[in-house]
Amino acid sequence: MATVLVVDDAAVDRKLVGGLLSKGKDLQVEFAASGEEALSRLAESPPALVVTDLVMPGMSGLELVAQIVAGHPGVPVILMTGKGSEDVAVRALKSGAASYVPKGVLHQHLLNTVQDVLAMVSEGSSQARLMGCLKRGQFHFLLGNDASLIPSLVNHVQSLVTSVGLCDEASVIRVCIALEEALRNALFHGNLELTSEQREGDSEIYQRLIDDRTSKEPYASRRLEVTIEVGPTTGRFVICDQGPGFDPARLPDPTDPENIEKVSGRGLLLMRTFMDEVSFNETGNRVTMIKHCAATKA
Amino acid sequence: MNESKYVRAEQQGNVLVITPLFTYASFTEPHIASEWNEVQQQLDAPETEQVIVDLGEIPYFGSTVLEWMAQLWKRIKVKGGRLAVVRPSEIGREVLAAARLERLWGIFATRDEALTWLAKPQS
Fold first, then answer.
1. Do B91 and A173 touch (CB under 8 A)?
2. Identity of the residue in B27, B60, B71 whose CB atom sits nearest the CB atom of A177
3. pLDDT (average), residues A240-264
4. Model-level pTM?
5. Is B99's CB within 8 Å of A151's CB?
6. Test the B interface: residue of A91, A153, A207, A209 with most B CBs within 10 Å
7. What is the ipTM of this complex?
8. Is there a contact between B63 and A267 if contact means CB atoms under 8 Å apart?
9. Is A149 in CB contact (< 8 Å) with chain B?
């Protein structure tokens, strides 16, 4: 039985919405007359879902969405909007509302929307439970020179590292920063052979160079090989590009006052700061980064 | 104030407050480049003498944002101005400290602190 909390300052509307939802299978409906009351109910016992009016005295529906997203991110919120409040509905969705239903079509759409959102939450929850059972992950990616895939790969690793419990939340972000730096280095400096000096120049010219090399040989057919092995005690991340390589020892130290205004070297610095071990092969086109579990290090 | 997807810019007196809304996409990428060009124009306008970069909207960032801030700093330095960074996350502070950039820029928890610092004459 899923509990739905209906929030509306008007008793008539609470009754109307309660009546619509009571037709749903396995739904238990509870009520709150204000955003403030809804939040105290959430603090006592979070419902499976909140349906709230947009316009209420005191805390508005939009403010309630923001508070629930911040304090109870697992509880989806559906907003009931009046005529002419489409812009607010869009803002509500951007700030984390799961959906909205115009008040004029509540009869037709509210129950279906509630059931759809609950089904999605249930599926997401099963997925989260499954990932919670993951103990070790090994992946091997072969990527083209498409920078737009990097955030997706990093998100995947973030989920993997979190699931296996390699490190705490802050360290997961540190791992992701280091990984993103390594991937961007391998793609732009390795496969596309772009230099830091070129990056410091005119941004439009630099972008044209990226576009040009992405479609021109020998750069176009180069690939990035990414191997990730993550377990509860160690994460190992190997990124290999097909460029000519470089000598990391020749990079200027970006923390040296003489170099502090230069662009180059900060990516490698962050990799070394946030990973426990960073090493390159002889040619400098394969980097291996290792992160140990904090408990293992101690 | 301009309301943009990747970079927000607000003029507060002689200070331009720039808020990046991206963490890794480079400002050379076409979708960001046009917004970046608008910010550059505001940066070069005579009324802008100082810059604040507000990092409060991004939970973390890497060298891309650092490089972007370095470019802002170089441009404002030419005009005799300074750059202050506000509201970095805990990990953001780690990134700034690792790159030793706190030597060059003021780093503050709030905009008010940064505005007070920028209003003082340079030592």
1. yes
2. B60
3. 79
4. 0.70
5. no
6. A207
7. 0.77
8. yes
9. no
Q: B63, A260: Cβ pair inside 8 Å?
A: no
Q: Cα–Cα distances in Å, from A228 out to A137, A153, A236, B100?
A: 8, 11, 6, 30
A246-250 contacts, C-beta under 8 A, 24 or more apart: A246/A189, A246/A190, A246/A284, A246/A285, A247/A284, A248/A280, A248/A284
pLDDT tens-digit series, residues A98-119 = 888 988 889 989 999 999 899 8
State CA A254 to chain mean position distance: 30
The answer to whether A150 faces chain B, any CB pair under 8 Å, is: yes
Lookup: tokens for A197: 């000096």
Apex CA B43: angle with CA B78 and CA B64, to 5°? 85
Structure tokens at A73: 């991110």
Strand partners, B20: B7
What value does the mean pLDDT take over residues B59-73?
Answer: 84
A47 near A76, Cβ under 8 Å?
no
Q: Which amino acid is at A283?
A: T
What's the rounded Cα separation, in Å, for the pair A294 and A172? 12
Structure tokens at A242: 């097909």
- CB-hemisphere CA count at 13 Å for A206? 18
Angle in degrees, 0-180, between the axes of helices A266-274 and B63-78, rounded to the nearest 10: 140
What's residue A90's pLDDT?
80
Tell me if chain B has a CB within 8 Å of the CB of A180: yes
User: Which residues in chain A are closer than 8 Å to B67, comparing Cβ atoms?
Assistant: 199, 263, 266
Residue B28 has its nearest CB partner, among A150, A203, A260, at A203
Amino acid letter, A61: G
Instruction: Please give the structure tokens belonging to residue B66.
Output: 């650092």
Q: A186 to chain B: which residues are within 8 Å by CB?
A: none
Q: Is the pLDDT of residue A135 over 70?
A: yes
A192-227 pLDDT, tens per residue? 999 877 877 777 788 888 989 999 999 999 999 999
Query: Which chain B residue is nearest to residue A171, measuring alpha carbons?
Result: B91
Between the CA of residue A169 and those of A70, A127, A150, what are the distances in Å?
A: 17, 19, 20
